[in-house]
Amino acid sequence: MPLNAIPPTTTVANFQCKLAAAENQCWVDVGFWGGIVPNNAADLVPLVNAGVRGFKCFMIESGVDEFPAVEDADIVRAMQTLRDEKTIVMFHAEKDCSSHNHSHGAAEGKKQDENTKQQLDPATYDAFLTSRPDDMELTAIRTVIELSATAPQLPLHIVHLASAAALPTIAAAQAAGVKLSVETCFHYLTFAAENIPPRATQYKCCPPIRAAANNEALWDALLRTGEIGTVVSDHSPCTPVLKDLENGDYMQAWGGISSVGLGLPILWTGIQKRASKQHLNNNNTTTTLAKPVSFADIARWICANTAKQVGLFASKGSIAVGKDADFCIFDPHDTLIVDQSVLPFKNKLTPYHGSKLNGLVRETILRGRTVFSVTDGHVPVPTGALLLEKRTV
Ligand SMILES: [Zn+2]
């Protein structure tokens, strides 16, 4: 993401700095997002020409000072600037809708956090969840849809949707022809707010993990109604200090969950759980979901549709003649017990630690060559490329 680095990817010079740091450090092929912040409209087309796959902006305080939130006028300016480019504009879609707040700046965000703090113990997950209600996502998404008229041909995308309350609004916009795609994340489909213990800040992310009933509605949007097209990690690690592990204060801790590389067994496990639930509901008469799910569905959510989103479907996202031979060998009958101490993350904390997941990735193949196997680990020299070719779609 464009903000998880200093400097943030908001100018071409900053982008070059990130590329230099990534060179020869990537285990798989990697593309990059640019960032939209107030007053960088003049940098956006040069960033497209330098090879960013698209842009992310925040409609609320991002948590880092060097990546401020955009106002509606900034979004309109960015859309006007990018209207004829082959790119995509993505929104961290939470917007402050409380009556006492009139701006979305850091000071106001902190004020709201303090108000919540007075009422609820900040070490409880409920304190954090209450501070970021469904309405914040819904308000932001309505704004994106309203502003889409500025550049009707420009693809727009809602990153990490957590609130199922926004699904009818999204469905109506998509039916009306708004070029709006939506993703959710592994954690919103897996964890439920009512099960998150106090001081367990490894579960904190923004927007927050919501109640179990909400998660089921997200599954339904994936499996049946189709408003959500992709599932991603939104991998967002930080140091243990930033997670405030000592005090377990949800209001102070960094928001972000680490799960890159775990997505396939997480989704496979979630689908099997739903299949067996239905099995019980139907008095053991059936073992299938309302709509049978296959690996092809999972591949569509995490490979094909994501490759289309980033403009790489000509070479990535499916196994086909002429495309890069990127795939993994997955054993659906094996088991993965997640041990964060051996995860290949610099900062290893993850709420999946200790989880027993169905399925195991035995081998990962990048452009025809094995880069990881369960028996040998990673190959000694990273061979991932930095993908900078301009989008053609
Ligand atoms: Zn975000």
Describe this structure in words.
The structure is a single chain. With 393 residues, the protein is α/β, with parallel strands linked by helices. The chain has one domain: Metal-dependent hydrolases (TIM Barrel, Alpha-Beta Barrel), CATH 3.20.20.140. 33% of the residues lie in helices and 13% in strands. It contains 11 helices and 10 strands. The strands form 2 sheets. The chain has a 6-stranded parallel beta sheet. Strand 2, helix 3 and strand 3 form a beta-alpha-beta unit. Helix 4 crosses helix 5. The longest helix has 19 residues. The radius of gyration is 21 Å and the shape is globular. The two termini are 21 Å apart. About 3% of the residues have low confidence. The structure holds zinc ion (ZN).
Write the layout of secondary structure elements.
Blueprint: H1 12-22, E1 33-35, H2 41-50, E2 54-58, H3 72-82, E3 89-92, H4 106-119, H5 125-131, H6 134-147, E4 156-158, H7 167-175, E5 180-185, H8 186-190, H9 212-225, E6 230-232, H10 263-281, H11 295-309, E7 327-337, E8 356-366, E9 369-373, E10 377-378
Helix pairs in contact: 2-3, 4-5
**Share in helix:** 25-40%
Report how far the terminal alpha carbons are from each other: 21 Å
Q: Which structural class matches the secondary elements? A: alpha/beta
The whole-number mean of residue pLDDT values reads 92
Evaluate the radius of gyration: 21 Å
Strand content: 5-15%
Widest beta sheet: strand line-up: 1-2-3-4-5-6
Residue runs with pLDDT of under 50 for 5 or more positions:
100-112
- CATH superfamily descriptor: Metal-dependent hydrolases
Could you give a short account of the major beta sheet? 6 strands, parallel
Total count of helical runs of at least 4 residues: 11
Beta strand count:
10
- The CATH architecture can be named as Alpha-Beta Barrel
**CATH class group:** Alpha Beta
Look up the CATH topology.
TIM Barrel
Total number of domains: 1
- CA-based shape: globular
Taken in chain order, the helices and strands follow as: HEHEHEHHHEHEHHEHHEEEE
**Distinct small-molecule ligands in the complex:** zinc ion
